């Protein structure tokens, strides 16, 4: 069971030294109880307390990373059942299955490599390859693994085989890439655990039901394996929904460690629409990896969009990077507009500037993701801050003129910006973004 703040407090040094960044040990204990701080922040905690607290303050779903580099996939660390309770932490990953019996291995690798799209400023893609040992032949499996290792060296891989010899033949090729070996079951648990231990990989555990799964993870843990992803054997929509919900509930509400691991869901279907539907259940309800048999663009777009929405932190507005964006191919005489970095504001304003067909510069200022009026009201889009941003941005070296177009909603700032930005003229643009095309065309 998770410890309360007071129980945690009793185990801390109680010196209120503030080294952890909190004013008192009690304040730190409360944050630990809410799993909003790491015990590592307290340098003075005793080894005995560390052991007790480490368990208690660990997230109920074990954090696991597979793959390396920019494309590494983080899973687990979840602490809530519903996003509105706090937030979901690590978006689920999509993996495309590649069968070692297939004659389309190269083209499927290409599909994964080309799956990336940009949406609302984020790069979204099919994250991994699930190599399936359909042949049950170690040699064939190794050959297919070699192609993947060669053609997609930075794509995280799930090596799916219940045959320890085949699994080992393939995992050798990804030894430094943190793959997952999936396929440990009641019969092969110890041998598969040994392979995972040798190559320091995460082990995928599969069972026929939840009871079997929880005793299996405990057994595998006793072999020295900590990092696991789990599969209850659910393949139908209703079963996936039921089992995934049970697993998350047991982990989060009961701190039931045997099920406190990221879930892998196999959603493959011949009917691609049905597969997409199963994928949406996995995204909405707690799968950390969803394996698909095909990744058509329409399916990717719908699954990516759903994932992006569900895994957006409701407490943090979506933002784009603060910088000067070029729209079209602007020259030094092109107009310079300014707006805030709320994603929606940026996309609407940049879209309307594009519609105007007048190449322009768009200065996007960090307003902590607030829209223009809200940012102004909150004191984050003020004359002083705008003037400072324009000076710091270096745009004075990019444009030859000194005219800044501000949103009509903050017309009130024009005089004070001019006072603070010496030599600049401030022009008040339209209040609504849809007025931008006519406004810019009238100026050019
Ligand atoms: Fe207390 Fe440790 Fe924080 Fe110091 S660093 S205030 S001892 S919890």
Report on the architecture of this protein.
- There is one protein chain.
- The protein has helices at residues 5-11, 25-33, 47-57, 105-113, 138-151, 164-171, 189-199, 210-222, 237-254, 272-284, 297-310, 343-356, 372-377, 383-393, 414-420, 436-443, and strands spanning 64-66, 73-75, 93-99, 117-119, 122-124, 128-132, 157-160, 180-184, 202-206, 228-231, 263-266, 287-292, 323-327, 336-340, 360-365, 403-406, 425-428.
- It is α/β, with parallel strands linked by helices and 444 residues long.
- It has 3 domains: 5-57, Electron transport complex subunit B, putative Fe-S cluster (3-methyladenine DNA Glycosylase II, Chain A, domain 3), CATH 1.10.15.40; 64-310, Dihydropteroate synthase-like (TIM Barrel, Alpha-Beta Barrel); 323-443, Rossmann fold (3-Layer(aba) Sandwich), CATH 3.40.50.11600.
- The strands form 5 sheets. The protein has an 8-stranded parallel beta sheet with strand order 10-9-8-7-6-3-12-11.
- Helix 6 (164-171) runs parallel beside helix 7 (189-199), helix 10 (272-284) packs parallel to helix 11 (297-310) and helix 14 packs across helix 15.
- Residues 12-13, 15-20, 22, 25, 28, 42, 44 line the site of iron/sulfur cluster (SF4).
